[in-house]
Design brief:
- There is one protein chain.
- By secondary structure, the chain is an alpha+beta fold.
- It has a domain at 9-67.
- The protein has helices spanning 21-32, 55-63, 77-93; strands spanning 9-11, 17-18, 40-42, 48-51.
- It has a 4-stranded mixed beta sheet with strand order 2-1-4-3, covered by helices on one side.
- A hairpin with a 5-residue loop joins strand 1 and strand 2.
- It is elongated and about 45 Å long.
- 6% of the residues are buried.
């Protein structure tokens, strides 16, 4: 008995499911007329592919989440970034 692979991505317009994001992107371009330059992101909560520009509003409207963005710059990219990530991990998981 063969079973189909689990769906990892869902088309936001027609709810068709795909096992690979690349297949979803190709479907979105061919069927729904998305431009190749459009960047699609996969929502980690509902696995819907959404235009990157609309992702924040998707999270707010569909998941009641507000995305806060931070723009950081590091003089010592590896060392300072590592210290930041360790402190974030400790805040969230300890």
């Amino acid at each position: 008995m063969s079973s189909s692979p689990p769906a990892l991505a869902v088309c936001e317009q027609c709810q068709k499911t795909f096992s690979k994001k690349a297949n979803l992107v190709r479907h979105f371009q061919n069927i729904h007329g998305a431009k190749k330059s459009e960047q699609l992101v996969l929502c980690p909560l509902c696995h819907v592919a959404i235009n990157k520009k609309l992702f924040d509003s998707h999270c707010e409207e569909d998941h009641d989440l507000i995305i806060n963005h931070q723009h950081l710059s590091f003089t010592n990219s590896k060392g300072e970034f590592y210290i930041l990530r360790v402190s974030q991990f400790e805040e969230n998981f300890t």
